């Protein structure tokens, strides 16, 4: 629940002293449990996190991580599964930290863990999203892509890592400051905001490029040229591939909502009324990321879009299902004669 009182105001009041302990400043260094001198209102969050909700969320991320690891190994989708699994492991650690704060809101280790892990987790999970566009473009038709498909991971992954580094620096500064050094805390806050704003820009760019590609693909495959282009047309019409795209789109929207919420939450500084409102955090941070991660884990590419697999046997089986018997026909980065003809048809259709 929100206290309705900012952390800065509480710290200013504490600095005046109480007659027996002048200028005592409650912080994660001077306080070790809730007491008269160390009330819950003086913590950065200003509330005791809900133990049951945080355990539930932590377990949800643990399940998503295990599922991602399993399918990543079984279907050999290393990059996508590693990003999702590692991000979920971080999230699990972060919410385990919040569960510890439910027992003792002045637990400095738990506070620092939840700050860093929950901030960084979604950024790592987004790497899985960015890795898919190259494979989808190659599977459907590279000629419809705004840029060469191979460039997408080369741009979006480093951009996402840059967001990660910036947020990690800001989170480290904020975690080390706690509530003892409000100025340092605010500096950490500004760095985190910069990282999240950059992440929103990167996500928006990804959404525009991916959306434009899918829009052009829909138009192309409605025409005769697209329907003759096999196995790409088989991929486009495949029900499991459609479910995979739906899961990616749902996760994308949820992560974008989370980032916008984080900007609003951090913009008022640490201890502002939004940060001190647990229900909004649970809905717009916890559940947005948990559901998004759950979608990526429940609809893994190894099952729903096997052309992302590193296994030639899995790709060969997928191509056979999509309407072509050759393992190198789609998703391998190599182009055979039928693909070249299809690409030429696509280029003519796009230019028409």
TrEMBL record:
Main location: membrane
GO CC list: fungal-type vacuole; plasma membrane
Top-level taxonomic group: Eukaryota
UniProt-annotated location(s): Membrane
Bilayer-crossing regions: 51-71, 78-97, 109-133, 154-179, 191-215, 243-264, 284-307
Membrane topology: Multi-pass membrane protein
Spans annotated as Disordered: 330-352
Keywords: Membrane, Transmembrane, Transmembrane helix
PANTHER family, A to Z: DOMAIN PROTEIN, PUTATIVE (AFU_ORTHOLOGUE AFUA_6G14140)-RELATED, PROTEIN RTA1-RELATED
Name of the protein this chain belongs to: RTA1 like protein-domain-containing protein
């Amino acid at each position: 629940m929100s206290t309705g009182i900012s952390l800065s105001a509480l710290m200013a009041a504490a600095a005046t002293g109480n007659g027996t302990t002048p200028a005592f400043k409650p912080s994660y260094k001077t306080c070790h449990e809730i007491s008269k001198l160390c009330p819950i209102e003086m913590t950065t969050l200003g509330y005791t996190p809900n133990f049951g909700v945080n355990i539930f969320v932590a377990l949800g991320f643990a399940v998503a991580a295990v599922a991602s690891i399993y399918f990543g190994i079984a279907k050999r989708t290393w990059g996508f599964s590693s990003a999702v699994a590692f991000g979920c492991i971080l999230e699990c650690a972060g919410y385990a930290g919040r569960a510890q704060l439910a027992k003792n809101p002045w637990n400095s280790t738990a506070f620092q863990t939840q700050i860093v892990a929950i901030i960084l987790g979604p950024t790592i999970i987004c790497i899985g999203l960015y890795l898919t566009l190259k494979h989808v473009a190659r599977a459907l038709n590279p000629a419809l892509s705004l840029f060469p498909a191979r460039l997408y991971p080369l741009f979006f992954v480093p951009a996402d890592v840059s967001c990660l580094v910036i947020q990690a620096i800001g989170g480290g500064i904020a975690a080390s400051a706690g509530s003892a050094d409000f100025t340092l805390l605010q500096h950490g806050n500004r760095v985190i905001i910069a990282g999240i704003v950059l992440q929103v820009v990167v996500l928006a760019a990804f959404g525009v490029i991916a959306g434009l590609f899918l829009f052009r693909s829909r138009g192309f495959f409605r025409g005769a040229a697209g329907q003759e282009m096999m196995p790409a047309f088989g991929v486009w019409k495949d029900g499991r591939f459609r479910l995979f795209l739906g899961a990616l789109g749902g996760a994308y929207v949820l992560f974008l909502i989370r980032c916008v919420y984080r900007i609003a939450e951090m913009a008022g500084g640490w201890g502002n009324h939004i940060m001190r409102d647990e229900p909004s955090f649970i809905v717009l941070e916890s559940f947005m990321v948990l559901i998004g991660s759950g979608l990526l884990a429940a609809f893994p590419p190894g099952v729903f879009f096997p052309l992302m697999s590193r296994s030639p046997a899995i790709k060969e089986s997928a191509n056979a299902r999509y309407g072509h018997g050759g393992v190198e026909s789609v998703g391998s980065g190599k182009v055979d004669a039928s693909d070249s003809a299809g690409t030429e048809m696509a280029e003519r259709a796009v230019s028409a």
